[in-house]
Amino acid sequence: MCFKEILGSTNIEGIIDSYAEYLFRKHPLNLKRFKSRRDALGEAALAEAVVFGLLQSLHLSPEIHEDIQTGGPDFVCAGSTLGFGLRPFIEPRTKDRFVVEATCLEPDAVTARSTIPNEPPEDVNGGPFSILTKSICYKARDKATQLGGYPVPRVLAVASSHAQVGAIFNTVGAEYALTSDAKIVNPMGSVEPRQCTDLRTSVFLRIARDRQAVVPCLQSISAILLIAVYRDKSEVYGILHPEPAQPLQIGFFPKIPFVRLTKWPVTDGIISTEWVVADPDGRGIPHRPVRANA
Predict the structure, then answer these.
(1) Strands 284-286 and 273-276: what pairing?
(2) Can you tell me the mean pLDDT for 70-88?
């Protein structure tokens, strides 16, 4: 299918094909790697294309950053018309820039870990399932080193096209990724049970070795985007690090809600969260074909 034939398309195939056309025109050396990802792990290629298209839709001027020899984050973005060419440990004009690494949760893995079938909701009977807090945490750990060392904010985008991804990529899933899964405890002598967390699968928090404080971890990641990919749009939820090496301004991502800690540092062992959004007009981002001349 040629690029002109899919200009009006808003489905996933249109995004992937138009992204491949973009690489062909502007980054031919990266096209071979993208094709191999598409052939071997379709979800990885889908995540790369969808995240790039989403960044274009938000007018963030994404450019390919990954070097086929040395690697690095997938994209570099700018909130202004600054030049590109960012590489680690180089001091360009970085005020409005950030880098983005796109990754995915494979549908089969989502089904195996959550017990949710990869089938449309209307075809599945309800039942218990697991939220994929641990999987999100492991993805962040795997990518933390790759995102380290850059003089700008670093964003990890985790995408999935599982048919029922909305059951796990939502406000609860984002909150649990930040604080770890909640547990209900009822200490002896207490009148009412209360929620607690051990932070074991929190992406950004840990309990100190002396168990007297909550401390930050994975500070090379400024924020995480959970991206639920549907046929015609993506729904996005953000998670902000309370103390990253490079803080991210959520104004880069209008319309996308971010969960963050209400108070940092944590005092008295009380962890609370809140949702913030730069431009509260909704979180759904319609799919648009990637533009080669953007």
Answers:
(1) unpaired
(2) 66
> CA geometry: angle at 196 spanning 201 and 259, to 5°?
60
Distance CA 13, CA 153 (A): 30
What confidence score (pLDDT) does residue 237 get? 96
Residue 9 confidence (pLDDT): 41
Q: Which residue type, as a one-letter code, is found at position 79?
A: G
Tokens at 177, concatenated: 């990724």
Of 172, 186, 22, 12, the residue nearest 104 (C-alpha): 12
The candidate with the shortest Cα–Cα distance to 134, out of 69, 31, 203, is 203
**Helical H segments across the chain, by residue range:** 12-26, 28-40, 42-57, 107-114, 133-144, 171-179
Do 92 and 65 meet the contact criterion of CB atoms below 8 Å apart?
no
What percent of the chain clears pLDDT 90, i.e. is strictly above it? 67
Side chain identity at 15, as an amino acid letter?
I
pLDDT given at position 123: 64
Q: Is the pLDDT of residue 267 over 80?
A: yes
Return the exposure string of 75-106: e unless at least 16 CB atoms fall within 10 Å of the residue's CB, then b.
bbbbbeeeeeebeeeeeeebebbbbbbbbbbb
Largest distance between two CA atoms of the chain: 70
What is the pLDDT confidence band of residue 204, given thresholds at 50, 70 and 90?
Answer: very high
Domain ranges of the chain: 3-286
Q: Which of 71, 113, 107, 78 is nearest to 93 (CA)?
A: 78
